[in-house]
Amino acid sequence: MNALLDTITVSAEKGRPIVDAASGEQIGYAPVHSVADLDAAVAAAAAAQPAWAALSSDERAAALRAAADEVDAHAEELAQIIAREQGKPLNGAGARFEAAGCAVWLRSAADTVLEPEVLFEAEGTRSEMHYVPLGVVGAISPWTWPALIAIWQIAPALRVGNTVVAKPSEYTPLSVLAVIELVSRHVPKDVLIGISGDREVGARLAEHPDIAKLMFTGSTRTGREIVKSSANNLARLTLELGGNDAGIVLPGADAAEIAEKLFWGIFINTGQTCAALKRLYVHDSVYDDVVAELAKLAETVPMGPGTDENSALGPLSTDQQFGIVSRLVDDARQRGARIVTGGEAAPELGPRFYRTTIVADIADGAALVDEEQFGPVVPVIRYSDIDEAVRLANASSQALGASVWGDPGEARKLADRIEAGTVWINQHGTLNPAVPFGGVKSSGYGLEFGAHGMKGLTAPKVITT
Ligand code: NAD
């Protein structure tokens, strides 16, 4: 019924069972590659790289555009795999949006051209900066937006003439292998290789002596391990790590007007998004209204299996994540925080569902505020002094994104004082393939997207005549 799924799954003896995140029902078997397979893949990618780099920029762009068309042609099959394996609903900013986004980012990479830059020209001397490929790029992705994040890493790497070995999360290999299969149909053999293995395969890829660059998106803890590996192979790194994004609602904000955007800034992908809003600071004067508006949405936005056309929110993707969310909410309750809505599992929907939860009357110091919850729950913290709200927003070691809500002029002024890779005003988490994205502090370093991101996949080379 799903030809793309049939292409990438393997027999039971060769694979690991992958289940539907909502029901636990088996979807198929994903290949499990070994460290030896990984070594062979890096060698093959290294052998394929010079010929790929020797193609013209226009030829590589054409290949990526053809890959984007292929993704569009198989978008529904890809979306069905994502909706089942990862669990996000098909509609809204869900699995169909993720599948379509893969094509959008492939085309954006194709359209981005890194021209040489003249750095100096005088007295008969001319210095130019050229952006040349690095060699083999390793790409390690998480289970959150599996296909899209893999494409964020793969598309710009291929565009500039690198070859890529991509390692999906062990929780979502099928979504990534599916999109790799579609792109691979339009690039020469071994230019893009998917290796689906366990964590030790990821570790080997990070430390491999023959990779020139590692694109990593995942937890801060794994990011630290990767930095250690890079001491040996000196691979360049782009690290997109964890986030605990703060949102600040200013006095005078209209709770009813901002509620829907605020809700989806928090609960996109059922909260399992790096740059989702994870701590909400609301001024005393509008606190009760904001909490009430969010609770209204939390109680009415439908939650259900990813493949149900009516679902807008889905299950937690993994048992581990379900455990983290339950622990953080229980801890908040024990500390005396107010569970406005939700606060418990929803077993009638399936084993990994947790009700959309708004937690009020909670403060920094509670684990739910200080840690990345990564699920359908948000702590709403009351403040009365804007300087205090800024201090608390900046107190986290994680600094991927942040947002300010209310009068646009006042919000813009405050944006300058907030430490984060991106500060959004009256929105949160919106991404654009032309606009760079990345974190600061322990949310990582390096940028993705646009020309800025693409430069990170090249070696800058100066030619002086
Ligand atoms: P994770 O760190 O557990 O795993 C990420 C990937 O690293 C997986 O493919 C895993 O197999 C691999 N891996 C594990 N150990 C490794 C090692 N020692 N060396 C190399 N690779 C290894 O993260 P996760 O739980 O899959 O993802 C959730 C986290 O990702 C959250 O913290 C989230 O905020 C973050 N994230 C960040 C961004 C961003 O753009 N900044 C985007 C999405 C998710």
Fold blueprint:
Elements: H1 3-8, E1 15-19, E2 26-31, H2 35-54, H3 57-73, H4 75-85, H5 95-111, E3 117-122, E4 125-133, E5 136-140, H6 146-159, E6 163-167, H7 173-184, E7 192-194, H8 199-207, E8 213-217, H9 220-233, E9 236-240, E10 245-249, H10 255-267, E11 277-283, H11 284-300, H12 319-334, E12 338-341, E13 357-360, H13 367-370, E14 377-383, H14 386-395, E15 398-399, E16 401-405, H15 408-415, E17 422-425, E18 440-441, H16 450-455, E19 458-464
Parallel strand pairs: 5-6, 5-8, 6-7, 8-9, 10-11, 10-16, 11-14, 13-14, 16-17
Antiparallel strand pairs: 1-2, 3-4, 4-19, 12-13, 15-18
The protein binds nicotinamide-adenine-dinucleotide.
Nicotinamide-adenine-dinucleotide (NAD) binds next to helix 8 and helix 9.
Structure description:
The protein is built from 16 helices and 19 strands. It is globular and about 65 Å long. The protein has helices at residues 3-8, 35-54, 57-73, 75-85, 95-111, 146-159, 173-184, 199-207, 220-233, 255-267, 284-300, 319-334, 367-370, 386-395, 408-415, 450-455; strands spanning 15-19, 26-31, 117-122, 125-133, 136-140, 163-167, 192-194, 213-217, 236-240, 245-249, 277-283, 338-341, 357-360, 377-383, 398-399, 401-405, 422-425, 440-441, 458-464. Strand 6, helix 7 and strand 7 (192-194) form a beta-alpha-beta unit. It has two domains: 3-241 and 443-464, Aldehyde Dehydrogenase, Chain A, domain 1; 245-425, Aldehyde Dehydrogenase, Chain A, domain 2, CATH 3.40.309.10. It has a seven-stranded mixed sheet, sandwiched between helices. A five-stranded parallel sheet has the order 7-6-5-8-9, sandwiched between helices. A three-stranded antiparallel sheet has the order 3-4-19, with no helix packed on it. 42% of the residues lie in helices and 21% in strands. It binds nicotinamide-adenine-dinucleotide.
